[in-house]
Amino acid sequence: MFPIRLLPNLSQHRRRWRLLASLCLAGLLTGCLAIPQTGLFAFRLAVTSLGVEDVRIGPYSIQAGLDTSDIASLVASSLGMGSLPIQATLAMGLSLPVGMPAVEMSGFRWSLDMPGAEPISGQYREDVTLTSSADAKLRLPVAFDVLATDRARMEPMVELATQLASRGELPAGSELVITPGDLRGLGMTLPAGLWTPTLRFAVDQDGELTPQR
User: Model-level pTM?
Assistant: First the structure.
């Protein structure tokens, strides 16, 4: 009697391949290195730039270098609507380390905490192609209403807005939090939260980002 040889289970091979590919992609994306802002990596995701653009206080556009000494009085004279929105654009660059294959990220959640201001958050819903050859340039709208919290905070919040406009950067002590969405690469998809934990970056006195554990 000849021994019976069973054919390999193809579904098992497929599952093993998917697991191996997922582990390879996760290995490329994981890691934590603390280096300067121009090459800051947290879980192999590089925040290459972070700035503030297009700052507005109510109807007034605040430009860098503009004399804003009387902006508080101008704003105070137009508070009949009982609302004082402050808006800005957070300009951010994202990339991958040299040699890594391109990865598609299905958006991400973000939150921003600045000294003296209420924390704000949002969702970047577009897919982001991350490569090692070029930065992905993103624009995140930032908005909050001063009078919705406390009218007594108008003056310090106006001061914060003018600081954002004049320096073009977040104030020291700010914290940016990014929670990546699903990651697609190597023919596989890593679900959000499995291999892509929340990333936290603090702004130091020099305006550079420092990854937080």
Answer: 0.72
